[in-house]
Amino acid sequence: MTDEMHRPDRRELLQILAMGAGGLLATAPLPGLAASQGTGPMRVSGRIGRGADAIDFADPRQKLDAFIKVEGDQSGAEHFLYGYGTITAYIDGMPDRRLFDTELYAVRRYRRIDGGWLRLHREAGIYRDPQTRAILKKWRNPWLERDIEPINILQEFSRRYRVADLGRAFNIGVSVKDDDVFMQRSFFVVRPSEFNPRDYPVHGQDYFYGLSEYVNFFAKSSDIANPKLSSAPAVGVTNSVTGWFPWLEMGTAPGVLVHQTRFKKVPSLADIPADFVAAVRAQDPKFLTAPTEFAEPDLATSGERYYKAVIDRRLGR
After folding, report:
1. Cα(44)–Cα(176) distance, rounded to whole angstroms?
2. Which of 65, 71, 188, 295 has the fewest CB atoms within 10 Å around its CB?
3. Contacts by 174-178 with C-beta closer than 8 Å and gap 24+?
4. Which tens digit of pLDDT belongs to each residue from 199-231?
5. How many domains does the chain have?
């Protein structure tokens, strides 16, 4: 009987682990977010605010506008989303291992367009030593017992958020408890990998790239419904599961990475650690500001695509 039991493949495992990580962290209180003292039931949708300022989450337009206010800024002003997290490796039969911390920010602006919103977006990410918090220039792979140069992330991509896409390609979950509003998004991606193990035996883990990600925003209904605010103060958590980063050089070794990040909106670069800003400025100062022009997104744009460009240069391809 045991021999015949179904063992999940890697793509199924990505989804199972992400759901577990998302469920555990989504219930944990965040610093700076007051726990609700009410005893009423959680509502999946409903109205917040009063009178002309009330918002009805059952209305797709109002729901999307509220999400933009929580995730960004309706005024079109440039703003930042800053996060700090951990990346942990899980391998069957072995203790989990915290590899490094990750620090990231997104800089962007929103513009209202016919039928929804336009997001102009850049993001940057670095890796830190969990003990010293120094930015890693070399990382000691504990399985290979040698140093590897990390590849920091710099990505630029714009997206249209349309009311017509809600409930289809673009989903927003909303729960309301007293004055607390919880907004959730999830992403499940399986596509051919940029790193085919046949062509990249050191960097490629699988013929498919998989990502499972849950993003949870926490804000106050009184801020969302306040017409004087174009941006509602918000914090959140992101939980995701992927395979090995190609630059870890783990090849086809089994294992997954669990990413856990806490984030908050901040108004400017002054609210982001100076050494992080300096590292981005030295690599490409363009990523210190949000785009001003829209470019049609390449749906294959990903961290993998960025890693491939860097690794191909290192390999002389």
Report:
1. 7
2. 295
3. 174/44, 174/45, 174/57, 174/63, 174/66, 175/42, 175/43, 175/44, 176/42, 176/43, 176/45, 176/46, 176/48, 176/57, 176/221, 177/36, 177/38, 177/40, 177/42, 177/43, 178/36, 178/37, 178/38, 178/40
4. 999 999 999 998 899 999 999 999 999 999 999
5. 1
Inter-CA distances, 306 with 14, 31, 232, 281, 303, Å: 21, 33, 32, 18, 5
Q: Tokens for 228, please give them.
A: 């004087």
Count of residues making up the chain: 317
Instruction: List pLDDT tens digits, range 232-287.
Output: 999 999 999 999 999 999 999 999 999 999 999 998 999 999 999 999 999 999 99
Candidates 209, 180, 219, 178; CA nearest to 81 is 219
Within a domain: 231 = yes
Rg (CA), the chain: 21
For the cut 80, the answer to whether the pLDDT of residue 10 exceeds it is no
CA separation, residue 130 to residues 105, 155, 241, 242 (Å): 18, 24, 19, 20
Domain assignment present for residue 224? The answer is yes
Structure tokens at 111: 């513009």
Cα–Cα distance for residue pair 136/125, rounded to 1 Å: 12
Residues 133-165: tens digit of each pLDDT: 999 999 999 999 999 999 998 888 888 999 999
Write out the residue range of the structural domain in which residue 299 sits: 2-25+41-315
**How many of the other CB atoms lie within 10 Å of CB of 71?**
26
